[in-house]
Amino acid sequence: MSNYALILAGGSGTRFWPLSRNAKPKQLLDLFGKGTMLRQAVERLGDLVPAENIFILTNHLQEAEVRRQVPEIPAQNIVAEPARRDTAPAVALGIGLIAARDPQANMIIIPSDSLILDDAAFRNLAEDALKLAGTENALMTIGIKPTWACPSYGYIERAGKLNAAGLTHDCYEVVRFREKPDTTTAETYLASGNFTWNAGMFIWNVAHARAQLAAHAPELADFICRLTQAQDVTSFITTEFPALTPISIDFALMEKADRVLNFEATFDWDDVGSWISVGKYLPTDEQQNAANSPLNALNAGGNIVFTDSGKRVALVGVDDLIVVDTGDALLVARKDCADDIKKVVAQLPEKLV
What we know:
This protein folds into 2 domains: 3-264, Alpha-Beta Complex (Spore Coat Polysaccharide Biosynthesis Protein SpsA, Chain A), CATH 3.90.550.10; 275-352, no CATH class. The protein contains 11 helices and 15 strands. It has helices at 37-45, 63-69, 87-101, 119-133, 183-192, 206-216, 218-229, 233-240, 249-254, 275-279, 341-345, and strands at residues 3-8, 54-59, 78-81, 106-111, 139-144, 155-161, 171-178, 195-205, 260-264, 290-291, 295-298, 304-307, 313-316, 321-325, 330-334.
């Protein structure tokens, strides 16, 4: 009962338009026929964290849909941030909500929009980390072993392996966090073998995290202290949260913390950052066309097709396209322009965003 979880479930719906919208972004979509990514995140915790100890942070646009999708989570545990203030204030809000209930809790923080298929392996590692959180004066991360020199992720540089009794997973001392590098630098990280991708998953003891925030991010520590003492929590969040300085948890705390440990993930992981990522998990024909619906392709290859109606799609003489069809919008884009989809969203009528 001393284990708690914080699921971060905010964000916008630009990268997966037209299927995603601001009120229903990636984590609230069923992209792979396995339930929405939010539902998968909750179910992934299994018996590691009871439902009454799971907190979900979202925003007002998505709050109603989040509540609809996870009815087993107590209503008071689902909180809509009144303003966007990046990950450090969001994490501080979660720490405060948990500390008010159990000042000595161990907690895990996970994003709601990562794809992990091996839930059992995730739980096994997280269980190790939560146990260690209660005995080590350290903040912990779960890192992903890099498979290529990706310039779009932050990296964690590691030193020696931790020698701790009872661990069944490798854990390392962290040297420093590295911001998103250029490709050449990322290649040197990959070659060295002592870096992991920063996947935004953290584990720690609440009391220790508060002490580290007091030392390195006093504004957030003060916010947590006042939150735990607030008579009207909802009113306090509405008034005080928007006043916090927008900053990421990496900048505010992790890069400054006295001691950080890094578990290397033993499970699969994908941040599913674009339609190209989705295509990797859809059924594929002999011409490498990936689709979630019936598809006929003539002299067409390497395309990604997604419809929310199951309609048949025919492609003739086209290669490397993204085709997404919904009831009120149609997207046709070259795969090498996937990152530009969010730019066209800015030009759309408000009713389609």
